[in-house]
């Protein structure tokens, strides 16, 4: 987590003119993020929590990266791929990376019917989900023992069906998160993200690894519980860079994003910030040049003083010599 030593550094880089409220918000974010921890792999916690992943397309081609993200950055003893065909699922998921990383040690496959496939798991990640179909599965999921559901909706999901799904999930006993996003691509990894309302128009393309990491962390972050939102790429990654400069990790970044402590500035605000930064750079350059000029002037004055001192010594020596001869 962000260390206390880095806290003052973060405040220094965040203090734009008139940003008192911003600095207070970030102080709160850093304070809360210190508690954003996860248990270590191999603890008893893992024996109680396991994840089952489904894909609304019945193919893990588009969502296969979420399995690796859950394994790499989560702490679960079992990850199950539930689909209609185990052999097809294995073709998608048993990659070289899965073998070398150790994912295969916790990855299981099932082609059982829905309720049976969910039984024995506590967390359900529904990728490329259709909200209408998902709504019909909520009761069965709860009966199977699911306590946490994270639904990644297809970009074509309609608002009416999302609203109905929200109503059903909020009245269930499960902790839920509903998320929409743009088309997943391989470009732009590690860039900024922003949260918006669930009914926003489909946003720009977003990096799939960033989304899968977001899902993994949000599974166990209380700031994502009972929430519906859209995740889109952000043109403003300045706050993200500042958090990384301060030593915050991805989990803390995602928690701050969910809490509304990372927001996208307007184009005018970004332009004003860039102008301020340029002005500050110009002032620093002028100060450096002025300091260098004063240093050169001081050297010149010292050199002149030295020359005058040498001349005075010569005059005094000559005067002493003349006085000695006359005596």
UniProtKB/TrEMBL annotation:
Q: Signal sequence span per UniProt?
A: 1-21
Region Disordered: start-end pairs: 261-292
Q: Which domain of life is it from?
A: Eukaryota
Q: Give me the stretches of Acidic residues compositional bias.
A: 277-290
Q: Which residues form a coiled coil?
A: none
**Is Nucleus one of the keywords UniProt gives this record?**
no
Q: Which UniProt keywords apply?
A: Signal
Q: What is this protein called?
A: NAD(P)-binding domain-containing protein
